[in-house]
Design brief:
Structural class: alpha/beta
CATH topology: DHBP synthase
Helix content: 25-40%
Shape: globular
Distance between the termini: 42 Å
Number of domains: 1
CATH class: Alpha Beta
Number of strands: 11
Radius of gyration: 16 Å
Order of helices and strands: EHEEHEHEEHEEHEEEH
Mean pLDDT: 91
CATH architecture: Alpha-Beta Complex
Strand order of the largest sheet: 7-4-6-5-10-11
Largest sheet: 6 strands, mixed
Low-confidence stretches: 1-9
């Protein structure tokens, strides 16, 4: 499958117009870089299969690791889910969204394989970063949320670092300034209604356990 790549000579400072440019790029199937509250992310339209293939090729990553997505809320995620979120997931979203928490919920049948983990779940996150949030709001659909770095590399914490990683293949870099957070998002997966803490990140395990019961494996 062929596709063209472009070089951006200018990184766009984060403005409403820059976000509109990123939204237009997503709609034509391109890859964008945007800031989150933790690190910079690589975004494509999560419903565009060709864009998903392009994203994984850019990162040099196989399809065996699922790509999570940004949503504005669980209502936006409903088309991605096999069923309504369990009470524990609703409680966690109410407490920690927007913020650095990824919820993994059972994926709808037929969802792109790149979005589904080994247990058949899709990772969902609502970012508290104003620019990431505005991007998803204006795109009005889920956007991939994978760190802006080649597979195995350190996540980019500035638009300049992301551009150094990806001089080709990214249409728009939205520069929201340096990201100084050292932690990635915490990840909670729900299987058969039970919550499993898969990764401790910016939100402590105790804070998550105070909201919903965690199951030990």
């Amino acid at each position: 499958m062929g596709f063209s790549v472009r070089t951006r000579s200018v990184i766009d400072a984060a403005t409403s117009a820059a976000v509109d440019g990123a939204v237009a790029a997503l709609r034509r199937g391109a890859v964008v870089v945007y800031p989150t509250e933790t690190v910079y992310g690589l975004g494509v339209d999560a419903g565009n299969g060709e864009a998903m293939v392009r994203l994984l090729a850019l990162k040099g990553r196989g399809a065996d690791r699922a790509v999570s997505v940004l949503v504005s809320d669980l209502a936006m995620a409903s088309s991605l889910l096999a069923s309504a979120p369990p009470a524990g997931a609703l409680a966690l979203a109410a407490r920690f969204w927007p913020g650095p928490l990824t919820l993994v919920l059972p994926a709808a049948a037929g969802l792109a394989s790149q979005l589904c983990g080994g247990a058949g779940g899709v990772g969902l996150r609502s970012s508290s970063d104003r620019w990431a949030s505005l991007l998803v709001e204006r795109f009005a659909a889920p956007v991939t949320s994978t760190s802006a770095n080649p597979s195995g590399g350190e996540p980019a914490r500035s638009a300049a670092e992301a551009r150094n990683y990806f001089p080709l293949g990214v249409d728009v870099f939205v520069d929201g300034g340096a990201r100084r957070g050292s932690a990635v998002s915490s990840v909670v997966e729900f299987l058969q209604g039970r919550a499993y803490l898969r990764r401790v990140g910016a939100i402590a395990a105790a804070a998550i356990a105070a909201v919903t019961d965690l199951t030990e494996e």
